Amino acid sequence: MKYSTFGLIVSIGAFGSCLGAETKECKTDATATGDATTTLDVHNPEQLDALEGCTILNGHIVIQADYEGDFSLNEVTSIQGNVSTIENGVEGLGLFEMEKLREIDHLHLLGLSGDVKLPKLESIGDLEFVQLSDTGSVDLSSLAEADDLSIRGSWLETKLGSLKTVNMGTQFCASQNCSIYGPERKFPYITVDLPSLKKTDYFEVAGAVKSVSVPKLEVVGYVEWSPSDYFPRQGLRVNTEDTKDNALDFDAPKLHTLNGSLEAYGGVSSISLGSLGKTDVRTTLNTDIPLSFYSTIQTAQHFHIWGELRSIDLPEMKDLGYVSLSYTTELPCNDTLYLLWQTQDDNSSDWDDYNTCLDYDYPQDKRATSQGTATMTTATSSTTRSTEIIPSKNEATISRTSSQATETETASGSTQSLTPENTAGLMFSIPLMDCFVLLMMTSVFMFLF
Ligand SMILES: *[C@@H]1O[C@H](CO)[C@@H](O)[C@H](O)[C@H]1NC(C)=O
Ligand SMILES: *[C@@H]1O[C@H](CO)[C@@H](O)[C@H](O)[C@H]1NC(C)=O
Ligand SMILES: *[C@@H]1O[C@H](CO)[C@@H](O)[C@H](O)[C@H]1NC(C)=O
Ligand SMILES: *[C@@H]1O[C@H](CO)[C@@H](O)[C@H](O)[C@H]1NC(C)=O
Ligand SMILES: *[C@@H]1O[C@H](CO)[C@@H](O)[C@H](O)[C@H]1NC(C)=O
């Protein structure tokens, strides 16, 4: 069979453009000379035309307040620099898309009202998206690793199906500043779906949250903080809008390592942590609706149960440190409550009205007795009292002792990091595969003509 000239031209053209598409490296500010990092301030979409054909960008891009329209850079695969909006956000910004982007230093997009499409992005430093308009969805379906992730506002959907590791904080807030507004301000409820997340240093959901799914989450809190870190964020915090008809159930069935703090406030109706064992966690449960709390936790630094409680089951508890009980509901006693009242730091008779365990016949849970897990040591020293902070619903209450910060990590769980080498490998292999498919197609094409 003979190749036609037309087919040959198409095939050479396709191969040429395909090789060319891989290598064009540009500075964000094309007019700049010298080696210094450039910053391009964009005021309108037309300014992006200057970057047409570029696949690798060096430098920053800052979207200015007067920008109106979509932001599309669909050829770019890599950015050595940040893309940000100015701090107060850009009201006129529509769709934000970079269809082929695989890596970027940091992204700070504030005051968004359109969709964000970054379907190929695999790794990033800091990512901060703030939604203004109660619409819009985020596509980050290839993102596997981030240093810090904060997605705030009422997004309709956030696709993060591949996210495995967030080195610092993972934060989802239905409001722009993570505040809780109460029933008077209605937000659409957000869904937090993280089917692959295994490891993060801090995990927070706040505001109008419909559901949270973290079926593979194993480790929260693994970074070694140095004593000089003034305010490390480490731990798990669930602080949701208090509405009776949309209570949140939080279940982290695989979470075996939790450091820092464990906090639940607002409209949380249940927490289940079925893989925890020994921890040094500072626990504060202070919900506005009756909470059911189940955990296999054995040890903690402190354990405070304030607010409303429906049930508590801690079948493996050994020493929960400084125990403080001031839940406002009168509950029938069970083994867990009996042991907690035994070790409550404040033994004064003021609490006798709430203490339904005064005449309790312990132990009743035969399972716990036969396993010999129901032994309790007495509460730890009352010096912890001086470091206590009474939490208010909307404030972080993280305090930390320096001794803790020098502990060494023994947490298991593997870090899956994208090293510069294998990121570069990916960057090459995928375009080459595209080329291969294109070549195959053009060969078929040649046979046809
Ligand atoms: C880039 O982002 C990082 C991390 O968020 C930030 O510290 C840095 O100041 C940013 N640089 C510029 C030029 O925007
Ligand atoms: C959060 O934002 C709301 C309005 O958007 C404001 O009323 C509130 O004071 C803010 N809270 C904080 C802690 O900044
Ligand atoms: C985290 O907790 C585990 C289990 O309690 C402990 O072995 C480890 O040292 C802690 N790591 C950090 C960084 O605090
Ligand atoms: C007591 O513990 C049992 C499990 O042993 C649990 O099913 C029950 O709900 C708990 N009751 C209260 C009041 O916490
Ligand atoms: C509280 O009282 C119980 C028994 O009445 C006792 O075993 C326990 O040690 C006391 N706890 C503290 C912290 O004093």
Automatic annotation (TrEMBL):
Mind telling me which residue stretches traverse the membrane in this protein?
426-448
Annotated region Disordered: the residues are 392-418
| Alphabetic keyword roster | Membrane, Signal, Transmembrane, Transmembrane helix
Q: Where is the signal peptide?
A: 1-20
UniProt lists compositionally biased (Low complexity) regions at: 401-417
The protein here is known as Receptor L-domain domain-containing protein
